[in-house]
């Protein structure tokens, strides 16, 4: 028993010892495998990194070479395309330049033609200008002679009066005035034994008149124009203005303004030259105010035309007013006759309505009432076969 037990114990111990040795050996093997695995991993990692570095270097080298080749190819393609484009554009520009050259040639031809025409026109203009200058010189000479003759004519008071009347006649004709209708000439008036005869008398509305004097002192003004020294000019200027004042006073003292004769409350004094009118305004404007205070209105040819236009408009307005009044009177008469006409028409309409009603009564109810017995007679004749001799139907 003891031997068996010992055997069992020894066997168990042996098994346990074997298991312990096996376990220890396995641990040692496990540690050795782990160490080997780590060494192997480190070696593999080292090789992998070396391969990656070599691969990266190879890729870099290949990429650089490929990039250079691609750039070179792109550059070659670009140069080829640029050369083709340049050749195409060069050919196109050459064609355009040729066409423009032709157009420029045509325009140059037209310009040359126009220049020749301009040259011909300039030559013709120069010839005509020379002719006109010659004619102008002749006209100026005639004008100088005319001015000299006019100056000699204006030296006479009677000639100056006729000249003023001629200018006034031209303005009146231009304004549309008719002698005997719109104005009178040299009409004599007699007031309290004093006679006056203005050069022109204008007819205003309501039988009013406006007188105008055309005689004007020009002796000292002509002397002023011919004076050579400033002192003489100043002297003649003062004398001329004094003459104008005296003439204004003389005109205002005449019977040109007479309310009893139904004249306007002013008189016109005609200055037959715009330059003289402007000269008076420039040298002494108070003279114009002095004339207005004496109810004398100074008129140049232009201002006289304006005054005449106002007179003409006033006369036309008055005539229109008179015509309008007459038209209103006629309209009132027409209205009265129209009302009487309407009354008669209404009465006639009523009579016609009654006649129409009577006519409709005759052609309607009365006619049917008469036709009924005749119808009965026809029935009787037909029923009894009564023969009526034809001669009885003949009218006498």
Q: Would you give an account of this structure?
A:
The chain has a domain at 146-328: Trna Endonuclease, Chain: A, domain 1. The chain has 396 residues and is an alpha/beta fold. Helix content is 78%, strand content 7%. The strands form two sheets. Strands 1-4-5-6-7 form a five-stranded mixed beta sheet. Strands 2-3 form a two-stranded antiparallel ribbon.
How much of the sequence is in beta strands? Answer: 5-15%
CATH-defined topology of the domain at 146-328: Trna Endonuclease, Chain: A, domain 1
Largest sheet: 5 strands, mixed
Q: Name the structural class.
A: alpha/beta
Task: Provide a quick synopsis of the model.
By secondary structure, this protein is an alpha/beta fold. The chain has helices spanning 2-154, 157-174, 219-226, 230-253, 274-283, 286-293, 301-383, 390-393; strands at residues 183-185, 189-191, 194-196, 200-203, 209-213, 267-270, 296-299.
What is the fold's blueprint, element by element?
Elements: H1 2-154, H2 157-174, E1 183-185, E2 189-191, E3 194-196, E4 200-203, E5 209-213, H3 219-226, H4 230-253, E6 267-270, H5 274-283, H6 286-293, E7 296-299, H7 301-383, H8 390-393
Parallel strand pairs: 5-6, 6-7
Antiparallel strand pairs: 1-4, 2-3, 4-5
Helix pairs in contact: 2-7, 3-4
